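chain below, 117 aa
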Amino acid sequence: MALELLVVEDDADVRTTLVESLRDEGYQVREAEHGQHALDLLAGEWRPQIILLDVMMPVMDGMTFLHMKQLDEQLVHIPVVVVSATAEPPIPGALCVLRKPVEWEQLLLVIAEHAKP
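prediction:
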């Protein structure tokens, strides 16, 4: 069974590239265009093994999403990797911060290390 990922990114081009590339690697991927959309996807039973999260987004930014996620006992265990051009580590609630443009091999290593079935 393929690992399931959630990509939360407002830039449609970046999101599409990430999603398609991750699917080519064999991952099941869902996508959200902002933090509230991601929370809506997570409101049901579906739980990804890892979340890739942008920070600067409209509607609900990544920092607010992380805060809301940390308050939910059903979601707090899901690992989050921040993928951002501007964010500086450490970020509470995030495993790590990867700089945009993300180095593909580095991203795959982080996913492999932290996304547990």
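The chain is about 35% helix and 20% strand. The mean pLDDT is 93.
thats it, cya
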